[in-house]
Amino acid sequence: MKPTPGTLRQSRLWGTAWLLLLMAGCTGAPSSGTGSNESFQAEASSLAPLPASFRGELSCDDCKAVRLDLALDDGGRYLLKETHLGPGEQPRRRHRGQWQLTDGELSLGESAPVAAQRWQVAQGGDLVSQASRTPDGEAARLARLPEPLREPLEERYWKLVQVDGEVAVDGSAHIVLHSQEGRLAGSGGCNRLMGSYQREGDALSLAPLAATRKACQGPVMAQERALVEALGATRAFRLLADELELLDENDKVLARFEVVDLT
What is the value of pTM for the model shown? Predict the structure, then answer.
């Protein structure tokens, strides 16, 4: 049967409609990897500028009070330090994790203690929690500090606290980066470490390294070998408050350090 002109026009119209639908479906498809990041940036804008530091006190049953120091970075990471105030006060615990902000509520997740997991962003930038109390019985508040607490990379004594996923077994392992000479000095817990370093932005290279050749007990020597390997594989660093993380080329954490004030 030979198609009529009307039938041909109708076929062309249907073909055009299908083509338009296909084009709309392609252009409407979300681009991979950008939506979640844009959503995070939009939510985080109420905490801007980042990084940011906060401090406040919570009530405590067996001490004067618990001081909380919270640091947030612009990549969704946080560091929370608990200090039990009173005679011989010391930071008791450190909590690390990812923070999220939804409808003005800041969540630190289960990595943080229950009393410090959820906060409302108040006008002025402070954080308030109705679930926790100050020593005076009021709603807990973490005041935003005028400037974020962040130690510089260089001219600081960085004590090793973790390497290759293992907690440091010796408190003397450390590194110091001297900016004027571009020199690294430190200890693996047994032997002295020496070398040079190069830094450009957040990129960091710590090789080549040399060490003295003293023999020590097994766990300390194993830690030292792991530290030397971590230093040699370092390609970048990350600072948050008084912590330093050394990263490999894939941003995997190789070693973590805490600053020690020697004054």
Answer: 0.76
